[in-house]
Amino acid sequence: MRIRKERLVFRGLPSQLDGYRILHVSDIHFDEKIGRDQVLWNQLHSNVADLILITGDFVTHGSKIDALVRYLENSKARDGIYGILGNHDYTFLTLAQHFRHRILKQDYIQNDWQHLVSALYQIGMKVLINEAVTVKTSTGASLFIEGTDDPVRGNPTIKDKDLQYDSSDLKILMSHSPDILHLDELRKKKFDLLLSGHTHGGQIRIPRIGPLLTGTRWVNRKECYGTYMTSDGMFVNVCSGVGYSLLPIRINCPSELIVIELVKDG
């Protein structure tokens, strides 16, 4: 597990947000191995971030929800912890299940995502499903955070207008998949920062080629991982994630947590 650090420079950023730190976590896919990863839990439990944002795929199998929540309940951030759902939070999907669905036309096994949302709420974490919140930071600024439903298993929407959006100092969108970049829904509002996961960075990356598979429909290889800026000036941060999808293999694509530092231009 590595900790990737990103300094994002924003023009017109209020001084109250200069140096503000966001811990971006994605694709935990909790199991016993993840439970033993001290880097992950030290970062979540040590109150090193001002804000923690988790961009979906908390679990692969719904039977792990309660164990995951026991690990997450000691997580700390000065201004709160918010998350969204990913496709695996809705359905139990392994490689075997995937083939059964494709070849034998069997239905996916459904995870109890309502239980996940309720259990996380009980430990103080808010899961945003096509919802938005305004966070008043400990430094006196105002953050607008909107979280969409999962683009694969859910029905993502973005509200056309919101008074809290207009008055906020920084606007953040969380969507499990970066495919949201290619949906007309995104154009209803202009966000300063998009946080996504889902792709795992490909898990297997070939030098000069990039990821073999990304699990996305529309984003290209350059858009499926890393930090970059869109043509209209929005920062995008796509995390390679903590756990694995389908196969427990990573080549040239380590698991990661991302610490994002907001920086005022000038």
Uncertain spans, ≥5 residues at pLDDT below 50? Answer: none
Structural class: alpha/beta
Number of domains: 1
CATH topology name = Purple Acid Phosphatase, chain A, domain 2
Q: What average pLDDT do the residues reach?
A: 92
Main pleated sheet: 6 strands, mixed
Strand order of the largest sheet: 1-16-2-3-4-7
Shape: globular
End-to-end separation in angstroms reads 33 Å
The number of helical elements comes to 7
Helix content class: 10-25%
Radius of gyration: 18 Å
CATH class: Alpha Beta
Strand/helix succession: EEHHEHEHEHEHEEEHEEEEEEE
CATH architecture: 4-Layer Sandwich
Number of strands: 16
Strand content: 25-35%
What does this molecule look like?
The chain has 266 residues and is an alpha/beta fold. It has a single domain (2-264), classed as Purple Acid Phosphatase, chain A, domain 2 (4-Layer Sandwich), CATH 3.60.21. Helix content is 18%, strand content 27%. It has 7 helices and 16 strands. The protein has helices spanning 32-35, 38-45, 65-72, 87-90, 95-103, 113-122, 163-166, and strands spanning 2-10, 21-25, 51-55, 81-84, 91-92, 109-110, 126-127, 131-136, 142-147, 170-174, 193-196, 205-206, 210-211, 226-229, 235-238, 256-264. The strands form 4 sheets. The protein has a 6-stranded mixed sheet with strand order 1-16-2-3-4-7, covered by helices on one side. A hairpin with a 5-residue loop joins strand 8 (131-136) and strand 9. Helix 3 (65-72) packs parallel to helix 6. The longest helix has 10 residues, at 113-122. The two termini are 33 Å apart. The mean pLDDT is 92.
